[in-house]
Specification:
The chain is mostly helical. The chain is 70% helix and 0% strand.
Length: 438
């Protein structure tokens, strides 16, 4: 049996090391700064999308010109000046922790410069109405802010780059979704690769503090309000299983499509155009996204949060084409090469699929299946089921659905694993190709 510590000696050992406490104070301070940065980014992104919809409602055909031109401009700026800011941002943070990446090459993937660029470029994408989310970019943004703390840490602080990146990336999820538990689970499932990192109490404290930054600004409210569970019994079993399996298949196909498209190794005409004329290709993708948005009366523009919230409140459009068209619009936006996350669009697609199945099966409490679809599709795309179910549970205040959300997420993720390689791990491997050749 292990001996208990001597209380006085343990306290003295902790207190006498000024380097240790200074390092912890800097770590926690930068965690708060990371959270506040993501909160500011969230404010900018939401106002940009609101401005787009305001103009689009007055000038319905505006996206046919503005969206493709903006997509092309964003890709040109990204490729010319900020190559590391392209895409989601999560693969970059994962790549930055790879053993082949060292201090002098880590800024290729994560840096304060890339964080500033990511804020600007992602907000610009939402201002164009592109189908993207801000949560993946929030991971890279917060990781860049957190990683910059290394310049201030004392050498004996015992805090390494991996701890900074893990805490920063997970803090980005916590602050973006206002879901601290989701941030902690994201750190465990996606960002941590070593057992000692997984139990780092300082990292957990940083994630929770970053989440509190969001709470301090937006209040302690769930993102989508509260869903009301009525008549929840065995009669929901068949519709719920159908939601999980459908989301697993569709999410797996979506993940595989993204990996194949972004790898750029296909020999089809479109992939060749993307390689040889990336800016023009981005413009064409932007035009397609604009056409889809006009066909859906604006429903597929942006992150999809508005559509999902309306569906949960039983006030939204239940068009059966939304799932397919949002799927295509999100894929085209990502394939174009703009800085873009897929968390929010995935929640929108999964929620809409759950709503469609509720109509198909005649299940009266559609918000229940919408919530299950959100968790299931996000889990299928990311293959991080615990993160997905916790994020959705916190976003809808769905504690009454804990076991159902968990089951849906696990089942959908299991189905997805039969179809696609893990999305972010595969994209992180692609990021490593940008390392200088020895």
């Amino acid at each position: 049996m292990r001996p208990h510590p001597h209380v006085t000696t343990a306290f003295m050992n902790e207190l006498k090391d000024s380097h240790l406490w200074r390092g912890r104070a800097i770590f926690i301070g930068f965690a708060a700064l990371s959270g506040l940065t993501v909160v500011a980014f969230t404010w900018l992104a939401e106002h940009a999308l609101t401005l787009f919809f305001s103009v689009q409602q007055r000038h319905a055909w505006m996206p046919l010109i503005w969206t493709p031109l903006t997509a092309a401009a964003i890709v040109w700026v990204t490729r010319r000046f900020f190559a590391g800011a392209a895409g989601s941002g999560i693969p970059q943070v994962m790549a930055a922790q790879h053993e082949s990446v060292h201090a002098h090459t880590r800024p290729l993937f994560v840096s304060l410069r890339l964080s500033v660029a990511k804020i600007f470029l992602t907000t610009w994408g939402l201002l164009a109405g592109l189908s993207l989310g801000r949560e993946g970019p929030s991971v890279q943004i917060a990781a860049g802010v957190m990683h910059s703390a290394r310049h201030w840490l004392p050498k004996r602080s015992q805090i390494n780059d991996h701890s900074l990146l893990t805490a920063g990336g997970a803090a980005g999820i916590a602050a973006a979704f206002n879901t601290p538990l989701g941030g902690i689970m994201f750190a465990i499932e996606e960002l941590s690769r070593k057992p000692e990192q997984r139990n780092h109490s300082l990292t957990v404290a940083a994630i929770v503090l970053a989440g509190l930054m969001g709470v301090s600004v937006y209040g302690n409210n769930s993102h989508f309000g509260v869903i009301h569970i009525e008549d929840f019994g065995w009669h929901v079993f068949f519709p719920a299983i159908l939601v999980a399996l459908s989301c697993g298949v569709l999410g797996g196909l979506f993940s595989r499509l993204l990996v194949v498209s972004l790898a750029g190794q296909s020999t089809d005409w479109f992939s060749r155009q993307r390689r040889t004329h990336p800016v023009a290709f981005a413009g064409a993708c932007g035009l397609a996204v604009a056409v889809i948005g006009l066909v859906t009366l604006g429903a597929t523009f942006g992150s999809g949060y508005g559509h999902t919230k309306a569906a949960l409140d039983n006030t939204g459009d239940t068009s059966a084409l939304y799932v397919l068209l949002k799927f295509v619009a999100t894929w085209l936006t990502t394939w174009a090469g703009v800085p873009a996350g897929i968390f929010a669009p995935s929640l929108a697609i999964g929620g809409a699929l759950g709503g469609d199945i509720a109509q198909l099966t005649g299940y009266v409490n559609a918000p229940t299946l919408i919530a299950l679809g959100m968790a299931a599709f996000l889990a299928a795309v990311t293959q991080a089921p615990l993160t997905a179910f916790i994020i959705v549970m916190e976003m809808v205040d769905g504690h009454a659905l804990v076991l159902s959300l968990m089951t849906s997420a696990l089942l959908a993720s299991g189905v997805s694993r039969l179809i696609s390689a893990p999305l972010y791990s595969a994209l992180a491997d692609l990021q490593l190709h940008r390392l200088p050749k020895d």
